[in-house]
Design goal:
By secondary structure, the protein is of the alpha/beta class. The strands form three sheets. Strands 8, 9, 10, 11, 12, 15, 16, 17 and 19 form a nine-stranded mixed β-sheet that branches. Strands 1, 2, 3, 4, 5, 6 and 7 form a seven-stranded mixed β-sheet that branches. A three-stranded mixed β-sheet has the order 13-14-18, covered by helices on one side. A hairpin with a 7-residue loop joins strand 2 and strand 3. The longest helix has 25 residues. The structure holds ligand BES and zinc ion (2 copies). The site of one zinc ion has 5 residues, from loops.
């Protein structure tokens, strides 16, 4: 897809297909708003309204093929619903719908008149960014592993069939252009995260994940450092290392550093669970649905995508990311229930369920991140099935004991359009994670609140004085396409990338 922003007025486009947006004046039958629609087209929309075919309701469409209007042949109107309820997130979704419609048309050139999305208090720049994100996100399609033979034999796919989309903003200010570029970068960073997640375990093991990270960072200011098994052992990451021992695939500890501010400025840190396949280990998972555990590195992938995005945006902050990457397999050297391992911070852990491995690898990564004396640490992990039960694929649950961090998270999520929900973590959850024979157990001693007890466990590896939030993305990292038009129907979503990037954008170094 070719994608650019244009200061178009309604008559100067040469595109085959045109998309307009139509909102409703109120929640009842007060009619539609047709501000940004050329006169000749207004008539046909009004006719459709009279016939009760199209009222501008949220996500409804009205389309015509073989028309001759404004130079276009295919004209589509997308309903936005009541003006009052309109948000930048709705602009993101409506733009994704526009892209999907255009790709189904098999058209080659199109204009999306996104100036029709400037409603309420939304500014041109906010809409340009949201629309750029919506279109870029909707264009993601995981086809790497299909027709591989053909792709190899053909030199390059022909460019002629590429869809060329112009986003009409009726505004060529530097601010709007910059916002459009930011939206495109953020969308692409999220798509990269999705791609890492969608790749299966045999093609995205810890070594490959590290290599792909290095490859993606080429040409940016990111410095990527990768530790192998021997180094991980030497660094006393005994908890992380123990999880990897059941597999032939060696672990990797991936670090990405970005310096956008003076060296004296403290970094912000991201940590992500990079379980490239979670079979459960000796506490083996049931086979039904186990294939989904290739997504168990989505937290890590989100952190990697976040860093690529931050570097491409050229943000004026210092950021370091850490991704412990491993498989969790039941090989002969695997952790056994009851084994006691020691983490980098000295704490001993009873491994009472080898399937609760995410917390074991994050323990060492969080300890190491905290040693960098960061402004704050945010981690992302597909940590618990309990999170899926609690919040489904609607919200990402996050845990923090720090109200100031919670505020930052909520503000960033509001701006990014991602839904997050603060969950409780208290002393009782901590008590439930005490070990019988070691300092801690990786399995709670009481039933229920499984995502909160997991969060409480992680807190043991971040010193009190370091502001910290944990995001359990188990419910939102894949298969959430039934809710959001910019998510793929199935597969990785890249959840929390937009919020993590926004937190870095909001941070004043
Ligand atoms: N990767 C899983 C969590 C998970 C399960 C994510 C389903 C998404 C969908 C994690 O490693 C795990 O297995 N957690 C256990 C912990 C339990 C043994 C305390 C779980 O949630 O069942
Ligand atoms: Zn597990
Ligand atoms: Zn896991």
């Amino acid at each position: 897809m070719q994608f650019q922003i244009q200061n178009l007025n309604k008559t100067n486009s040469k595109a085959q297909s045109l998309v307009y947006f139509v909102s409703q004046k109120g929640t009842g039958d007060q009619g539609m708003k047709l501000n940004n629609i050329p006169k000749d087209l207004q008539k046909i929309v009004k006719d459709a309204e009279k016939d009760e075919v199209f009222k501008g309701e949220w996500s409804s469409t009205l389309s015509f093929r073989g028309m001759e209007s404004q130079g276009g042949k295919n004209i589509t109107f997308i309903g936005l619903g009541p003006e009052k309820e309109f948000t930048a997130e709705k602009a993101r979704q409506a733009s994704a719908n526009a892209y999907k419609y255009l790709s189904a048309l098999k058209t080659q050139s199109a204009v999306i008149f996104a100036d029709g999305l400037v409603i309420n208090k939304n500014k041109n720049a906010d809409i340009a960014r949201a629309a750029a994100e919506g279109v870029t996100l909707a264009s993601y399609n995981f086809d790497t592993l299909k027709n591989m033979g053909e792709k190899k034999s053909k030199k390059k796919t022909s460019k002629a069939k590429e869809l060329n989309i112009e986003l009409g903003m009726g505004d060529s200010s530097a601010g709007t252009k910059k916002a459009f570029e930011q939206g495109t970068i953020i969308g692409e960073a999220t798509n990269f995260t999705r791609w890492l997640g969608d790749m299966p375990g045999n093609r995205m093991n810890p070594k490959i994940l590290a290599e792909e990270t290095v490859k993606a960072a080429k040409g940016t200011k990111l410095k990527v450092t990768v530790w192998d098994k021997a180094r991980i052992k030497k660094e006393n990451m005994g908890s992380f290392l123990s999880v990897s021992l059941g597999s032939d695939a060696e672990p990797r500890f991936i670090m990405m550093e970005y310096k956008g501010a003076a060296a004296s400025k403290k970094p912000i840190c991201y940590v992500g669970k990079g379980l490239t396949f979670d079979a459960g280990g000796i506490s083996l998972k049931p086979s039904a649905g186990m294939e989904e555990m290739k997504y168990d590195m989505c937290g890590g992938a989100s952190v990697i995508g976040t860093m690529i995005g931050i570097a491409k945006l050229g943000l004026k902050v210092n950021v370091i990311a850490f991704v412990p990457a491993t498989e969790n397999m039941p090989g002969p050297s695997a952790n056994k229930p009851g084994d006691v391992v020691q983490a980098r911070n000295g704490k001993t852990i009873e491994v009472n369920n080898t399937d609760a491995e995410g917390r074991l690898i994050l323990a060492d990564a969080l300890t190491y991140a905290a040693e960098k004396k960061p402004v704050w640490i945010c981690d992302a992990a597909t940590l618990t099935g309990a999170m899926v039960v609690a919040l489904g694929n609607i919200h990402t649950g996050f845990y923090t004991s720090d109200d100031a961090v919670a505020k930052k998270v909520e503000k960033a999520a509001e701006e990014s359009g991602e839904r997050v929900w603060r969950m409780p973590v208290v002393q009782d959850h901590q008590d439930d994670m005490k070990g019988t024979y070691a300092d801690l157990s990786n399995l709670a001693s009481s039933r229920g609140a499984g995502s909160a007890t997991a969060a409480a466990f992680l807190k043991n590896f971040v010193p009190e004085e370091v502001p910290y939030a944990h995001f359990d993305v188990a419910g939102t990292a894949w298969n959430a396409g039934n809710r959001l038009s910019y998510n793929p129907k199935k597969g990785a979503t890249g959840s929390i990338v937009r919020t993590f990037i926004q937190m870095a954008m909001d941070h004043k170094a």
